[in-house]
């Protein structure tokens, strides 16, 4: 009797695995719908200049979209072609940043509206869901226009980036869990560029992405799983990802565990001007060093007003072997 039960259990298990495999395979190319923002690239020199500032500074596009061979240049705040190819080792597989120059291997074959939809709603040109890693859902129409206007001026560079490589777990996650993430409220048309708390919130959540790394996340889906700005997100070392991880610090104004509690506004600004000091750090210190005093003041003032969270994430660098 026991042998019969085990035999039937084994048969059912095999049938389940086969059925799951078939379902997962058929869900690898799910299509999603999202609106196309009314965004069009501009040839206005002031708009392009604003886009250049955002792309090279607070939006830190080069930190992901520059080739790894320009790593040191980007870390020092220098310029690098945004040809993609940077490899990200995630629990779901290997993902590659895309070429965002105007070549046919980059964004040259996409419309402005397609690019804007991908950034704001997380839906690619082929209607697939993008992993929620870029912080532009709430970027204003004005800034989104500026960013697209500037990258349209980049010299086209032919660089065929490999397709993302999802492992078995990644394929299951892709089949059932990865869905587009977009804004829950209407994004702003424009916002005043000043040192206000409001502008600091905009920069910290919509462009510079302080929240994206200083809040714990699930690297399977990109979903936020921790309290805002409380740290604890483990990210691969920038120079030795196989042996070290960095842990984002708590930057809420908690009196005992808040990393910034002993920092004045002046110290905060000076720290950003110093660039990368811990070479393992994945924080885009190079692009951030190009941010204006006005924006750094705004971000600092906003971070002083977020909800304090008592959370000590421990050392900022940990060995994983």
Explain what you see:
The protein has 321 residues and is mostly helical. The chain folds into two domains: 45-88 and 96-186, no CATH class; 191-321, no CATH class. It is 36% helix and 6% strand. The protein has helices spanning 2-26, 45-56, 62-65, 71-75, 112-121, 141-151, 168-176, 197-207, 210-214, 265-273, 285-288, 293-303; strands at 87-90, 93-96, 165-166, 234-236, 244-247, 317-319. Strand 4 and strand 5 form a beta hairpin. Helix 1 (2-26) packs across helix 7, helix 8 packs across helix 12 and helix 10 (265-273) packs across helix 12 (293-303). The longest helix is centred in the first third of the chain and has 25 residues, at 2-26. The radius of gyration is 21 Å and the shape is globular.
Layout of SSEs?
Elements (H helix, E strand, L loop, with lengths): L1 H25 L18 H12 L5 H4 L5 H5 L11 E4 L2 E4 L15 H10 L19 H11 L13 E2 L1 H9 L20 H11 L2 H5 L19 E3 L7 E4 L17 H9 L11 H4 L4 H11 L13 E3 L2
Antiparallel strand pairs: 1-2, 2-3, 4-5, 5-6
Helix pairs in contact: 1-7, 2-6, 8-12, 10-12
Number of strands: 6
Approximate shape: globular
Topology as a string of helices (H) and strands (E): HHHHEEHHEHHHEEHHHE
Q: What is the beta-strand fraction? A: 5-15%
**What integer value in Å does the Rg equal?**
21 Å
- Give the count of helical stretches: 12
Q: What is the number of independent domains?
A: 2
Distance from N terminus to C terminus (CA atoms, Å) equals: 47 Å
Mean pLDDT: 94
As laid out across the biggest beta sheet, the strand order is 1-2-3
Helix content: 25-40%
Q: Which structural class best describes the helix and strand composition? A: mainly alpha
Largest sheet, strands/sense/barrel: 3 strands, antiparallel
Q: Spans of 5+ residues with little confidence (pLDDT < 50)?
A: none
């Amino acid at each position: 009797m026991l042998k019969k039960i085990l035999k039937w259990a084994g048969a059912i298990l095999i049938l389940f695995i086969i059925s799951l495999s078939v379902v997962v395979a058929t869900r690898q190319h799910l299509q999603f719908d999202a609106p196309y923002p009314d965004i069009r690239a501009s040839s206005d020199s002031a708009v392009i200049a604003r886009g250049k500032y955002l792309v090279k500074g607070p939006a830190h596009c080069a930190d992901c979209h520059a080739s790894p061979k320009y790593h040191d240049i980007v870390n020092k705040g220098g310029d690098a072609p945004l040809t993609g190819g940077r490899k990200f080792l995630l629990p779901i597989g290997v993902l590659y940043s895309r070429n965002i120059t105007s070549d046919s291997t980059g964004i040259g074959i996409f419309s402005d509206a397609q690019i804007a939809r991908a950034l704001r709603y997380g839906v690619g040109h082929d209607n697939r869901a993008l992993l929620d890693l870029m912080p532009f859902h709430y970027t204003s129409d004005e800034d989104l226009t500026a960013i697209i206007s500037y990258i349209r001026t980049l010299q086209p560079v032919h660089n065929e980036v490999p397709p993302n490589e999802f492992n078995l777990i990644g394929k299951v996650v892709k089949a059932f869990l990865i869905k587009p993430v977009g804004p829950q409220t209407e994004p702003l048309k424009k916002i005043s560029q000043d040192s206000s708390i409001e502008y600091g919130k905009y920069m910290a959540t919509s462009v510079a992405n302080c929240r994206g790394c200083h809040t714990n996340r699930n690297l399977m889906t990109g979903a936020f799983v921790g309290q805002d700005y409380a740290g604890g997100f483990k990210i691969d070392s920038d120079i030795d990802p196989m042996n070290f991880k960095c842990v984002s610090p708590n930057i809420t104004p908690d009196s005992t565990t808040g990393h910034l509690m002993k920092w004045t506004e002046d110290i905060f600004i000076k720290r950003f001007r110093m660039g990368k000091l811990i070479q393992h750090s994945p924080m885009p210190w190079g692009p951030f060093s190009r941010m204006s005093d006005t924006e750094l003041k705004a971000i600092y003032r906003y971070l002083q007003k977020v909800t304090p969270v008592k959370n000590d994430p421990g050392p900022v660098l940990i060995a994983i072997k």
